[in-house]
């Protein structure tokens, strides 16, 4: 059986998917998956398709070295304005999101209400090859693969606000009130 990094809080209201040893760069895939977390499922797929067409961008927040600045990152209000259009990672994430749609439909969930609640990208074992250098030397030529997993949860309607919230007191205020009652 496939092992997930965590189980959803409500298994009946959620669906999950994962891929292991994906041959796409870990850092690009990390930022791509992070960009869709918290989005509704259909909106996430639309966003990824826009990234493929260079209409939107994936903002890079963690792995930012040697990545260029682009004006399209202004919509995300991130400091640094650094982003990219990582095609291979985006295609892999789109495939997983489509699989997530079919998994949620198979479980009887409403796809329009499904929100991506969990996404994890982990480093996989590096694929080792070799490259031949000058003067008869050999150097490693590694690929930085990754594992990806997504959970989606069907959100219910908005929760009604309580009529009147209970007053919260600090310990000091509660002690003063008890002291005033005791007099």
TrEMBL record:
GO molecular function: structural constituent of ribosome
Keywords (A to Z) from UniProt: Ribonucleoprotein, Ribosomal protein
Coiled coil: none
BP-aspect Gene Ontology terms: cytoplasmic translation
Keyword Ribonucleoprotein: yes
CDD domains recorded: Ribosomal_L22
Matching InterPro entries: Ribosomal_uL22, Ribosomal_uL22_euk/arc, Ribosomal_uL22_sf
Family that this chain belongs to: Belongs to the universal ribosomal protein uL22 family.
Protein name: 60S ribosomal protein L17
Annotated organism of origin: Strombidinopsis acuminata
